[in-house]
């Protein structure tokens, strides 16, 4: 009964989103409705609001997003983005490939805010010649290809720790699906048509290059790409060196501020211009909804409810992971709940194919969830229709889960 209340609220959310009600209003309204459906009084709900607001993860995400907004504007004002894309589009003639490389590169940095960082670059690469839905899909989809390859992402680390399977075996089991993810996105990428006249170009930069007499050899273009992306390369390198993401972005901003002689007044003006309050409120609303779900225990009955279904056990595990991921939009939530259930049900004797299946089902749930921060940020940036993007996402995600099921049946 309790789980049914959660599902009703989530269906209502999907209907409102389908009617194009902004996500920021939907998640805050859903948080209020869910809390009171579970008998929470005003004081109890205000306590949830306070808990969500002061939660370290909420504060961290908000600070990261604000810093990324500032960093992106510095890079834009100082011409880094223009130089990078001007050189990159001359090295790689097909702007669609550039469009996919950008979020994949930024995706090396495992932070929700990375989707917000790559979105303006995708916009810069193709401009108004590509629809908001296609730009949203490519930015969101190709940002997440690395979570099947890199131990930088906490998902694979958590799975290895919970199951006791060595990290290398987990990564080897997931790697074929990471490759498949890349290829499944290509039909969507190459069906896009880019009108060069509507794409954003850099005539000013080209004029400067011509005036200075710099020969645009391939070597010079590669050097220009490197130096124009150096702040981002430095940021990714710091994160890979285990520097906390907030500190890493702060260091890069500080260096750029000194390099380009921002004083306190000019920096504060830049920060005021860069930070989009509406986006920060939307993310706070998502964290509030997560807090309400956790406080009222709305999905505690879910495993037992699904366990009564007349379907094979491995499908139950996959369904639990998918629903938890879809309802929360967070990798940690489905891994932290679904995998302990799998371990308990199997007596700790879990195979790599089963681990891969549950992981892929949960991954599909997060990729299709409106609660996923990367998706919500990209939708907000491109002012896109969520339903169009979900319609594209459901195809590759269904193929991935279907392949994982077949692989489990063959290898088990």
TrEMBL record:
One matching Pfam family: DUF401
Keywords carried by this UniProt record: Membrane, Transmembrane, Transmembrane helix
InterPro entries, alphabetized: DUF401
Annotated transmembrane regions: 21-46, 58-76, 97-121, 141-159, 171-190, 232-258, 270-289, 309-327, 334-361, 389-411
Record-given protein name: DUF401 family protein
Organism: Desulfosporosinus fructosivorans
